[in-house]
Amino acid sequence: MAQGQSDPVECVEQRHHGFPQGTSAYFRKAQYGKHRPRFASRNDNIQSFRNAMPIRRMDGNRYPLSRKLGSVRIRKRDRLRHPIESLSSWTVKRENRTYCLVLLFDVDIQPKTRAEGRVGIDLGVKDLLTLSTGEKIDYPNRLRRLEEDVKREQRKLSRRTTGSNNYRRQRAIVAKAYAKLRRYRDNFQHQLSHRLIEENQFIRRRRTLKAYAAASLANAR
């Protein structure tokens, strides 16, 4: 991305490059009938902008997005795992009044050693998972606290007058609490499934599962 390039020109170029891909994806999914994609609305809770021509340099611990958007600080715990020169694109996403930056890198996939472990898993009622090794895995206590926060904010919303300013503000707080709970649960399930896959070559799941227990780990499969 050129340093003197203006942001409106960047937006037009991004739309120009992404139009054929979006058009082909639309008509490819249109055959599913009721599941065909819908156009985005300004009232959507999720808005995003992607830049496929990013700046491939760092200013100290800050990454410059563009001339008008400025830069963002990269925290030590969120340090980049790949060289900035291999950056392919970045996406700024806004969800429930919270902004997130997603960086996409082009990296070579390194082959991993073949795992020799075998394990069976059973989704239970008291515990999330019970392994054939005898290990029992449950959600962390922090997840329970986040669920209590959602319930508390939801009760506050039920006492607000529908349509009032306080109702709209509380509804935004509830949506933010739900998003925080969902991100924490998805991250835990992702780390758990990644650990099981890395340690075992063969994983077997019992067929006799409760419906709600199977749904609780649907994303972790």
Structure commentary:
This protein has 221 residues and is α+β, with helices and mostly antiparallel strands. Helices cover 37% and strands 22% of the residues. It has 4 helices and 9 strands. The protein has helices spanning 7-29, 141-158, 165-199, 211-216; strands spanning 46-51, 62-66, 70-73, 87-95, 98-105, 117-122, 129-131, 136-137, 200-205. The strands form 3 sheets. It has a 4-stranded mixed β-sheet. A 3-stranded antiparallel β-sheet has the order 1-4-5. Strand 7 and strand 8 (136-137) form a beta hairpin. Helix 2 packs antiparallel against helix 3. It starts with 6 loop residues before the first helix and ends in a 5-residue tail after the last helix. The relative contact order is 0.10. The model is unreliable at 1-6 and 208-215 (pLDDT under 50).
What is the strand tally? Answer: 9
Stretches where pLDDT falls below 50 for ≥5 residues?
1-6, 208-215
User: How many separate helices?
Assistant: 4
- Mean pLDDT rating: 78
- Tell me roughly what share of residues is in helical segments: 25-40%
Shape: extended
Order of strands across the biggest sheet? 8-7-6-9
Structural class computed from helices and strand pairing: alpha+beta
Describe the sheet with the most strands: 4 strands, mixed
Distance between the termini: 39 Å
